[in-house]
Here is the input.
Amino acid sequence: MKEIGIASAPGKVILGGEHSVVYGFPALVAAINLRAKVHATLLPDEGIEIIAPDLGIRQIYTYDEAFNVKEISINHATDNIAFAVYQLLEYLMKTGIHDTKRGVSIQVNSEIPISSGLGSSAAVAVASIGAISDLFDQELDKELISKLAFQGEIIAHGTPSGVDNTAAAFGGVMLFEKGNMQWLDQVQELPILICNTKVPRETKRLVSAVRERYKRHENLVGKILDTMGQVVREMMHGFDDKNILGELMEINQGLLASIGVSHETIEKICWIAKSNGALGAKLTGAGGGGCVIILPKDEENAQVIKGKLEKEGYDIFSTSLSIKGLLIGNGE
Ligand code: MEV
Here is the structure.
């Protein structure tokens, strides 16, 4: 047992296939260089404490509260983390590693904006589980960590596909389909801009709104989701030609708008980017606000687009895609 456990995990962008991935179609997902960092320590008594100084959050859960999080709601921002952490403690108890008489405190410092489509909840859950396993000197495999974090994602997002926790645990750029991952190497250098609409939204609500639309127009929406899957497959071959990739991003954005997950601000940002030379732009994640990803023509064009959007008051930054998923221990 250590005095302190440390871990970090990355956020992600979805290059194509959000929402359709919930229905089993493929998505292209990339971990990014924004990370959630967690320190874990032991509490004197039972319980789970979650501290997020940047958000002014300090929340304590009894084990019962953490376990029953589905029915109670103590704090939307931390309930899913408490649930995932409880799953881990239960696992450690079952395997005889910890008697759980002393609970854990986790301190979260995250660079990933929340409710913005960049997978912050999954990154925090994965990093929390990583930090606690570090505290107990346990080397859990990433598959298990991702699975435990997924339990928290169900609390946060209803019927998630698992892309966010998978990207946070494993990192890299991957084609994600029905829980299977295929990593892509040639995409690491893809320069992408991320623009935050600053319009908050809830993944759970958007995923269920799409489900309702699907129920009302099963045939039509089914075809749209299937087409999104085809767009993603074509994107896999579009990495050699950025013009094609940009066009495919635009097609994906149009399809996303047709299932009701775009937003006035998303459309405005896409329009500004496109009319200033971007090859493509689309929402990323659940939509309804959150972030837009933009594929610039080149570095010079990226600066032009950045300038225009900053002038409009948006936060915009360049991403580098991250090959590093969960990192355990000091230094990161
Ligand atoms: C994930 O960031 C966005 C959605 O595709 C939901 C999911 O995959 O769980 C909308």
